[in-house]
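To make the argument concrete, we let one protein speak, a sequence paired with a row of structure tokens, as a model reads it:
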Amino acid sequence: MVVSVPSNILLKDEFTYKQWCLSIHSLLDAHGLTQFIEGEISPPPETIQNPVNLEETIPNPAYTTWYKQYKFIFSALIGTLTPIVTPHVSKAKTSRDI
């Protein structure tokens, strides 16, 4: 799923945080993705047992999908930050941290 963040959603400073937060939450909620910012989702296992050869593991397609969504949302959130705000979240590792 690709979610486009409107260019007018920007976190400019501490005074625009509430509006930014409401806009981001509403956008993610509309796409059923709020669990990524609320910490309600854990990643699935990276690998699963191969159904053909039980002694082998293979990449988990569910993990691949989760990881792509996770990284897209993180990147989209970073893209909504102005240079004034970016240093304050430079150590964020997850979308929830932002």
